[in-house]
Give the backbone structure.
Amino acid sequence: MIKKITCIECPKGCGLSVNIENGKVVTVEGNACLKGIKYAAAEIENPVRILTSTVLTKGMSLKMVPVRTDRPIQKSYIRQAMKKIEKICLTKTLKTGDVIDENFLNLGVKLIVTRGVSRI
C-alpha cells in the first residue's frame, strides 16, 4: 500500500510516497534528505504527538487553563487522554510549568500547566 504524507522535519515539506507492508515502511520516495525516511517510519509505525488542551478551573482567575504533556504520547492514547482531561478541575494557584499529573495515564509523561492561574 502506498500512503502519501508530507514531511515536517525541515522547511522543505517534501511530499513523501511511503510503501507500507504489514504496518512497516518498506520504501520512501520523494524525500530530499535522510530526515524524510526517519520521519516516515516514525509517522507510520509509531505516530506520537505532544498533547495540548485546556482544563476547567473553579474559583480561579481563568475559567480554563492551557495544559500539555511534557513529551509526546502515542496517537492511540489521545482519546483516552482527552477523556481524563475533561474530568480535571483545578482549584489552587499554579504557575507556568507546574505539574498537574506526574504520570499521566501511566505513560511516564507529565501533564503541565502552560499558563499561570491564581485563586480569586
